[in-house]
Amino acid sequence: MTISNGSNGEKKQSPEIVSFGEMLIDFVPNVSGVSLAESPGFVKAPGGAPANVACAITKHGGSSAFIGKFGDDEFGHMLVNILKANGVNSDGVCFDQDARTALAFVTLKKNGEREFMFYRNPSADMLLKESELNFDLIKQSKVFHYGSISLITEPCRSAHLVAMKAAKEAGVLLSYDPNVRLPLWSSPKACREGIMSIWKEADFIKVSDDEVAFLTEGDAEDEDNVLSLWFDGLKLLVVTDGEKGCRYFTKNFKGKVSGFAVDTIDTTGAGDSFVGAFLYSVAKDSSIFEDEAKLKEVLTFANACGALATIQKGAIPALPTTSAALELISKSKST
């Protein structure tokens, strides 16, 4: 399917994967293992899970678009330019003259894990309205991907729900990575309920082991506990287990795929790199959900991409290419 770009009569391909939600600037300490107050300086890095996923897809030669709202400020325009520089379609982007682009300060602890402090009061992404949605992008895609941060406040929550409904009615695959960010919600209970409020709409869900523990209030290693998140109609549930790899669950089969050991510096964007690699593969071949051998191959590729995203600071700057991921897979087979 093609859409006209409206300028010189040329045709351009509709993006296969549309990411919906927030894009912001992560300020990452330039020294690991210190608190925000102790950090002598910060590295400015573009971030926001849905935007990271959109950029991860184009790194592999896939086509993606981002739908979201930015402040009409220098940071907002900088972020949209980063999307464009990464080959992401920005036809679904809009600007707000009265709200700022969101910022996050991300503390890297000694093990590379993160703590967040957000500046959103409210930020422009929270103010996206249904009337500002680009429905053509959504309906003409193969996959519509989203998180949970866009569910926190109105009017963005309503826009999110309408966008999901439009995608579902158009036969588009719904991909959900909840990305638990407790500091943004009024309480852990509100976060859990908000995330679960749209749980049963998705075709594919990716959660981390920590998110399983949070959502179920139980042991992420316990398979029965994980399966409490399953529902009829779900095509695939993936639980990422950090460097250990991931577990997968479908209606007909389940299993584990090993991860890759790398020298981790910063885990920011690792899950998004994983999801982007996976969705890129799904857009090429949706039979992955029914073919266990294909699924394991794709999840191995996604695990490699997730691992490689941790070897430098920031999210988008650290996203790996296909060749880098295949090289890591090849090396691990030969050792």
Structure overview:
A 9-stranded mixed β-sheet has the order 7-6-3-10-11-12-13-14-15, sandwiched between helices. The chain has a single domain, classed as UDP-N-acetylmuramoyl-L-alanine:D-glutamate ligase (3-Layer(aba) Sandwich). The chain is globular and about 50 Å long. The model is unreliable at 1-11 (pLDDT under 50). The protein is built from 10 helices and 15 strands. The chain is of the alpha/beta class and 335 residues long. Helix 4 (156-169) links the parallel strand 10 and strand 11. It has helices spanning 49-59, 74-85, 135-139, 156-169, 188-196, 209-216, 223-227, 270-284, 292-308, 322-334; strands spanning 2-4, 11-13, 17-20, 24-29, 42-47, 64-71, 89-96, 103-108, 114-119, 143-146, 173-176, 204-208, 236-240, 245-249, 254-258.
